[in-house]
Amino acid sequence: MADAAVLEKVTFSLPRDLVRRLREAVADGLFASQNALVREAVARELDRIREERLRAEFAEAARDPMFLQDIRDTDDAFASADAETARMIPDD
């Protein structure tokens, strides 16, 4: 649960049906409070948006020839160190 010292009170307007559903979820014991439900839902949505943006950025990078060349150059620069480390791993 969030530390009360870092909570900030805000006001939002929600559609009446959404408020009804929110109250029902709390009454059904699915969440400790309306605040808890809203906090969790907003955090989950913001996490989803962040992940979606990261996926888009990764997809864009995967099409960038300069980025891909940089990866190849880095792989080449560490190839001998990687091979040396691999030789040190026991063959269980």
Question: Which key phrases capture this entry?
Answer:
92 residues; mainly alpha
Q: How would you describe the overall organization of this protein?
A:
With 92 residues, this protein is mostly helical. It has one domain (4-88). The chain is built from three helices and no strands. The protein has helices at residues 16-27, 34-62, 65-88. The protein is elongated, with a radius of gyration of 24 Å.
For the secondary structure, the number of strands is 0
| Low-confidence runs | none
Q: What would you report as the Rg, rounded to the nearest angstrom?
A: 24 Å
Shape: elongated
Q: Major beta sheet, specifics?
A: none
Structural class: mainly alpha
CA(first)-CA(last) distance: 44 Å
Series of secondary-structure elements, N-terminal to C-terminal: HHH
Number of domains: 1
Q: Mean pLDDT across all residues, rounded?
A: 93
Number of helices: 3
Helix content: over 70%
* Proportion in β-strands: under 5%
